Amino acid sequence: MLMEKRNANTISRRENLQLSVHLKICKWCRAYEVKLKILDDILKRRLAQKENIEMNNSEIQYFKDKILEKLDL
Fold first, then answer.
1. φ and ψ at 27, to 5 degrees?
2. CA–CA dist 35, 29 (Å, integer)
3. Which of 11, 14, 31, 58 is most buried (most C-beta within 10 Å)?
4. Chain-centre distance of CA 60, in angstroms?
């Protein structure tokens, strides 16, 4: 969640410090961070190509479910 907040630029200094410390000790979150950056880059490129990408709520939920499934949560 903190990585998502950081990507959205809504993270506090304290949360950023907590995230930095956690990432130093947690290999799973470091791996997720790499995947999150790749996904973010892909989505930014897609948005640059198509200004009006429309996703309905079921598509968004499917995408979230797939991410959670891959994270095994």
1. -70, -30
2. 10
3. 11
4. 13
Looking at the chain, the whole-number percentage of residues with pLDDT higher than 90 is 29
pLDDT over 90 (residue 5): no
Confidence of residue 62 (pLDDT cuts 50, 70, 90): confident
The answer to whether residues 18 and 2 touch, using CB atoms and an 8 Å cutoff, is yes
Q: How far is Cα 29 from Cα 15, in angstroms, rounded to an integer?
A: 15
State pTM to two decimals. 0.58
Longest CA span, the chain = 40
